[in-house]
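Example record

One chain of 298 residues, shown exactly as stored in the release files.
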Amino acid sequence: MAFNFFQKISRAIAGKSHVDDDTLDNIEEALIESDMGVDTTLKVIDALEERVHRDKMMGFDELTGYLRDEIGKLLDLGPEVSATVDLDKKPCIILVVGVNGVGKTTTIGKLAHMYKAQGKKVILGAADTFRAAAVDQLDIWAERAGVDIVKQKMGSDPASVAFDTVKAAVARGADLAIIDTAGRLHNRVDLMNELTKIRNVCGKVIPDAPHEVMLILDASTGQNAFQQAKEFARATTISSITVTKLDGTAKGGVVVGLVDQFRVPVKFIGTGEGIDDIRPFDRDSFVASLFNPDDLKK
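Predicted structure tokens for this chain:
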């Protein structure tokens, strides 16, 4: 049975009248099981130990309130880090990266639909030219969302597709262009070279483009998400993260760990398979959802 975050914490302190070493060990285990990661978990536990030492006694409500506050702090990157995509840039160029299978193309389609519903003009770029299925899938999503797509034949130069996409976005007066990229990690040098080339050609059309490099990660992969983030952070500068397959059950801790370890904001979360199952990340509501997972689905 997959317990949600709150249930894990409840089990950790069940039957305890105060917080002792065993309780802290149980909480530590619960946080790690929630995919928060060892380093981030230890930050929370160290802060909790200090609080317990100072207050001596701490009931369940106090403890959960403190954990909520501490997790909120870890997700706070400060006012200088934007929690939203800057649509004041017109067109705003978003480069989307991530391994195959994490929901990258699906997320692009959902974002296109969301922004189209807000009255924005969106163009998609199919720069994952190594898999015919990737171009076909993005084509389907473009049709579903009712937006334009720029594509070339399979095997074409991804940077050429990116260049054409940005040029089309400028020429057609688009508000934003979202560019898909190949999800390969087998050779970091190849990945770095390809992403660097794509970034450079975007900059030839619009000097400060791309304005956003968004990494897509699958919450259900747990610690693999951290490893993927490390690899892409080595290959390029990541400006934001979108976490998919986050249904509010057991894996919410991965969001906390990613923000804490990489100091990059999560800007969107995917909560299901439907075209509307994506939403901007809100720190306060997310923290609340960890302790009441039904909130995440509302």
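Notes: The mean pLDDT is 87.
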